[in-house]
Design a protein that fits this description.
heterodimer; A: mainly alpha; about 70% helix; extended; B: mainly alpha; elongated
Chain lengths: ~130, ~325
């Protein structure tokens, strides 16, 4: 097993090239005005570009490249215990039954959206 | 009457012993006994009274066959949760609806009409095998017409045309009514389903039909929102002096800019551009932006009139 640490500079340059190419392709794609979709696509592009830059030598990069070929779950899927993950995300979700957890999640999402919007507006206002 | 009663009970017990999944609650036995005894209006079972000795043997066999039919149907019906409880509850289709075992007169009569209709259907179906004569059917219809009037006449004509349908309809409702656990389960599932629907509307990319992938989507979205808050906190917003301009203190902003008029003019041009851009997106944010600067929007005519008046005054 090859335990040599990766050469950071070569990986940086290879990753930069691939990532910029992916972002160019992304900007040409339609339906990317939505912030959430852009975030998902950017993150996926970053992950794939890094794995492509590393190549098939390592197990983790092989796993990532395999995931693209399978066309499912480019971003880390929480296939194991999605309910538990949700409980960990929503504050106070650990001691709730599933039904009230769902309603709390809905309220939490709306509040988070409002918070993000306000903070973004403040950011735009503070520095014209 | 007691003969029939005990006979039916015996059959029920013997056939249900083998199947562990059928567990008729004792209340249903009580109900059966209630139906069979004369607590209910005497006209309810005229056939039982009139042809008691003639029918008991044949009726018993018919009941057994009907029960076996129900049992076999429920055994093959693996998906339906309701069928075991339904089949285990005996011969007569028990009252539909949400009342567990409460029987009021009106519904009871219609149920009896349906019971008789299904039993009559059974008899019609098994006429050949049991060797029954048709005059018994006539007896049944006569007795039904005598005792129940409109409800029976409504039930009887429908019965020959759709022999399977009344039974299936009652079967579904019985499954809902009988088991409190299944009712609670169903309520819980419905509540979860409507909350999932509400969540689906909130989260973008909500065209997933799969429940698991929908949960994944929700989790991803919550993670994304929290990440956005984190990122916004680490941006310039979290820096020193970032919040002061928002309070609309124009004098402090002028001091900071260190340029006086020139800076203000430059700021005005960029501010105009910003306002124009914000107006395209959202009216509210444009107004907020202007308010933060201590500015407001007004029609040009008013602006010119005000400016001319101020110019003349100064």
């Amino acid at each position: 097993m090859n335990i040599q640490p990766p050469n950071s500079s070569s990986i940086k340059s290879r990753f930069a090239v691939k990532f910029v190419q992916a972002m160019k392709r992304l900007s040409k794609r339609r339906g990317m005005g939505d912030r959430y979709k852009r975030y998902r696509a950017t993150r996926a592009a970053a992950r794939v570009s890094l794995a492509a830059a590393v190549g098939p030598e390592r197990a983790w990069s092989r796993a990532v490249l395999r995931r693209i070929k399978k066309r499912r779950g480019l971003i880390g899927r929480t296939t194991t215990n999605p309910r538990r993950n949700l409980r960990g995300l929503v504050p106070g979700g650990k001691g709730m039954d599933y039904c009230s957890l769902l309603s709390e999640t809905a309220h939490y999402i709306t509040c988070l959206q409002a918070q993000v919007q306000v903070m973004q507006d403040m950011l735009h206002l503070s520095s014209p | 009457m007691n003969n029939l009663n005990s006979l039916l009970n015996q059959q029920q017990m013997s056939s249900l012993h083998d199947d562990s999944q059928f567990d008729p609650p004792p209340s249903h036995d009580d109900f059966l006994q209630q139906m069979l005894s004369m607590n209910t209006p005497a006209a309810a079972f005229p056939w039982a009274d009139d042809q008691h000795h003639q029918i008991s043997g044949a009726a018993a066999r018919a009941m057994m066959l009907q029960q076996q039919l129900l049992l076999s149907r429920s055994l093959t019906d693996a998906n339906d949760l309701r069928s075991p409880t339904e089949a285990g509850n005996g011969f007569f289709p028990l009252p539909r609806g949400d009342r567990d075992d409460v029987v009021d007169d009106h519904s009871f009569k219609t149920d009896i009409a349906e019971n008789d209709a299904s039993i009559q259907a059974l008899f019609n179906g098994f006429t050949g095998s049991l060797g029954q004569t048709t005059n018994q059917d006539q007896h049944f219809t006569h007795s039904q017409a005598d005792s129940f009037g409109a409800s029976a006449s409504a039930a009887a004509p429908s019965q020959p045309s759709a022999t399977g349908q009344p039974r299936q309809r009652v079967r579904a409702r019985r499954g809902q009514a009988t088991d409190p656990h299944s009712i609670a389960e169903r309520l819980r599932r419905e509540r979860i389903a409507e909350r999932m629907k509400a969540l689906q509307e909130l989260v973008p990319n909500a065209n997933r039909t799969d429940k698991a992938s929908m949960l994944d989507e929700i989790i991803d979205y919550v993670k994304f929102l929290r990440l956005q808050v984190k990122v916004l906190s680490t941006s310039r917003l979290g820096g020193v002096g970032a919040v002061a301009p928002l309070i609309g203190d124009a004098s402090s902003q002028g001091k900071k800019d260190n340029g006086g008029d020139i800076a203000e003019k430059e700021g005005m041009a960029t501010a105009e551009q910003k306002v124009a851009k914000l107006l395209e997106e959202d009216m509210g944010s444009a107004m907020q932006y202007l308010q933060g600067k201590g500015l407001c929007l007004m029609p040009i005519s008013l602006a010119t009139s005000i400016s001319s008046s101020t110019q003349t005054s100064t």
